[in-house]
């Protein structure tokens, strides 16, 4: 089948409509079928198309060098080809690609995935990501990152909002006295026993419990803890703890929100994250949660390591974005299309 290059579009006459009807390629126009360069290259590789004045290599080079592609065309083509070879119809869409349900095609089918293409060195700007996930959710589609590494291999990540369901929480009826100990605080006696039963703190010995800064501040803010035998108050303790941990604000916001849901957040340091979170029971943590600021940017390579770690220990990987008084939980999961 013969085609010509017209700007950034490959045009075929009316005979090209069979490609659309049978395989979901291109978009019908007034004079035939309009193909994207990704579609044309794929069809050339499969021996189904000839573009006047170009072979595969020269058309690929032409597309890569177009200023509007910003040097990203090659990885876009690699993603397009991979999705096609997995048996899906795919078109340019509101993100980078829209992928139809397997066996369905444009015109009659339903879009299943909205795909954004990244390289392994790209940063993830969470304000943009949250908007894109919200758009996909509004359209009732799955939002996916297709990440192309430096060896041109692909990894797909399903990204969605996670809305935790609260479980019944146990409340304290009496205040407990604590002694500030640097950036921590110590509770002794009956108070230590009670807090430990609610999964606060770590045992120092049989009679004493050590509380972490988020635990201390949460209990102070709830009016369940007070300092005894010390001139330091909540604000003084907070200032001291903040001087040692510049992520304390975000961690405290997320810790408090998780506690209000009836969950048990504990340090996730050994997993490389802020919290491991127990949701259904306190015998196995279900999630790893990392608190981030509203405007956070994180390299996709860092997120990749996080997702792999979470998968290896059978947990969900969530980034908790602190937006004013709201916490937006974004879940990343590696998938196979």
Automatic annotation (TrEMBL):
One Pfam family matching this protein: tRNA_int_endo
EC number in record: 4.6.1.16
InterPro entries (alphabetical): tRNA_endonuc-like_dom_sf, tRNA_intron_Endo_cat-like_sf, tRNA_intron_Endonuc_cat-like, tRNA_intron_Endonuc_N, tRNA_intron_Endonuc_N_sf, tRNA_splic
Domain tRNA intron endonuclease catalytic: 73-156, 250-329
Coiled coil regions, renumbered to chain: none
A Gene Ontology molecular function term of the record: tRNA-intron lyase activity
Superkingdom assignment: Archaea
tRNA intron endonuclease N-terminal domain ranges (all copies): 1-59, 194-228
Keywords carried by this UniProt record: Lyase
Protein name: tRNA-intron lyase
Gene that encodes the chain: endA
């Amino acid at each position: 089948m013969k085609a010509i290059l017209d700007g950034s579009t490959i045009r075929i006459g009316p005979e090209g409509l069979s490609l659309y009807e049978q395989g979901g390629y291109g978009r019908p126009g007034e004079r035939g079928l309009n193909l994207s360069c990704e579609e044309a290259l794929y069809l050339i590789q499969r021996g189904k198309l000839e573009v006047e004045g170009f072979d595969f290599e020269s058309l690929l080079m032409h597309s890569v060098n177009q200023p509007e592609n910003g040097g990203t065309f090659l990885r876009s083509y690699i993603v397009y080809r991979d999705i096609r070879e997995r048996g899906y119809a795919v078109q340019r869409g509101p993100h980078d690609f829209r992928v139809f349900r397997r066996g369905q095609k444009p015109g009659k089918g339903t879009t299943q995935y909205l795909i954004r293409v990244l390289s392994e060195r790209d940063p993830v700007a969470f304000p943009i990501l949250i908007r894109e996930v919200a758009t996909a959710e509004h359209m009732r589609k799955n939002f996916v990152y297709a990440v192309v590494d430096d060896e041109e291999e692909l990894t797909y990540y399903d990204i969605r909002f996670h809305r935790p369901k609260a479980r019944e929480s146990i409340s304290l009826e009496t205040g407990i006295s604590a002694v500030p100990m640097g950036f921590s605080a110590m509770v002794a006696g009956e108070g230590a026993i009670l807090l430990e039963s609610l999964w606060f703190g770590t045992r120092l010995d049989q009679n004493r419990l050590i509380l972490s800064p988020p635990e201390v501040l949460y209990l102070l803010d709830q009016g369940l803890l007070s300092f005894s035998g010390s001139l330091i108050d909540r604000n003084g303790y907070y200032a001291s703890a903040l001087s040692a941990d510049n992520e304390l604000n975000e961690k405290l916001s997320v810790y408090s929100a998780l506690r209000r849901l009836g969950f048990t957040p504990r340090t996730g340091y050994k997993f490389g994250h802020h919290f491991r979170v127990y949701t259904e029971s306190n015998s196995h943590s279900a999630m790893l949660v990392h608190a981030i600021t509203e405007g956070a940017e994180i390299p996709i390579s860092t997120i990749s390591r996080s997702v792999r770690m979470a998968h290896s220990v059978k947990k969900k990987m969530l980034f908790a974005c602190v937006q004013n008084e709201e916490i937006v939980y974004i879940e990343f999961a590696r998938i196979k299309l």
